[in-house]
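Sanity check. The docking grid for NAP depends on where the pocket ends up, so I'm generating a full predicted complex first rather than guessing from homology. Inputs follow.
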Amino acid sequence: MILVTGATGNVGSELVSALAEAGEQVRALTRNPSAAALLPPGVEPVAGDLNRPQSLADALAGVSGIFLLPGYQDMPGLLAEARQAGVKRVVLLSGGSAALADLDNAVSRYMTLSERAVRESGLSWTFLRPRSFMSNALRWRPQLAVGDEVRVPFPSVRTAAIDPYDIAAVAVPALLTDDHDGRIHELTGPESLLPADQVAVLAKVLGRDLHSHGLTDAEAREDMSRTMPAEYVDAFFSFFVDGTLDESSTHPTVRDVTGREPRTFEQWARAHAGEFAVPA
Ligand SMILES: NC(=O)c1ccc[n+]([C@@H]2O[C@H](COP(=O)([O-])OP(=O)(O)OC[C@H]3O[C@@H](n4cnc5c(N)ncnc54)[C@H](OP(=O)(O)O)[C@@H]3O)[C@@H](O)[C@H]2O)c1
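Predicted complex below; grid placement will be based on this.
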């Protein structure tokens, strides 16, 4: 039995589908009882709160491997519960900024401390360090619902963004075999794009006359402060304005692990075009 945390999210939902299609027994953690109806047939929903390790007893029973999201309040406690329940392996969804091990940066800090807790847990582990998700473009939905302009922060910063589908594709063998134990996978898509390039691809796929408006740093700070805590805004400014994190390089990991090329942003956009028809 594999436990997928974040099972209703961008990566977890892809992983639940991939594992179910592979015929594996899958348990999907969610705090939302109505989400169960959206799971593929045969997938077992289970309630639990990652911030409260004691709430995970039902979720962990009989589980051999966990796909785990980072950054919850008591990662060592959560992992101790898992080990006590008999779990053998954890595949952690981390991020590129874990490599910085910068405890003064709120994002790097939670990635770093989550990886550290997993290393110290005594479980077999694999770390997935994806770059920015292609699904971050779904954040543009409210703007696309009211017009054709997309306001983009950090307009001159290229990212080799990855499709959550490909993160899940790498997670599957990491969960089911011991081939990936102790390995850190740097995960990117196949190309390095500017935000304006992504908007242009989306315009083509949606058949709309979209254009991007690059925000100044002051505008970006104001926009981002509406949706995230100040320490996260500071973290992203450190990454992309001060240049402490370079997400522009591509890595061959998805191809090496899956035997096929990672999906392009256009492929992601075609798969998710329907989600842009509905306001977020
Ligand atoms: N976006 C990026 O570019 C990027 C890059 C690298 C790493 N990451 C990491 O990726 C993760 C987000 O992944 P995603 O985009 O797949 O997720 P998402 O779409 O943002 O969904 C969040 C998921 O987390 C679950 N969740 C949230 N709080 C929870 C709690 N207290 N207990 C149990 N479940 C909880 C939600 O489940 P319910 O609501 O159903 O309970 C949901 O399934 C983050 O941890 C982030 O650090 C993101």
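Relevant for the grid: The mean pLDDT is 97.
Also worth noting: Residues 5-12, 29-32, 35, 49-51, 69-71, 93, 95, 130, 132-133, 136, 164 surround NAP (CB under 6 Å).
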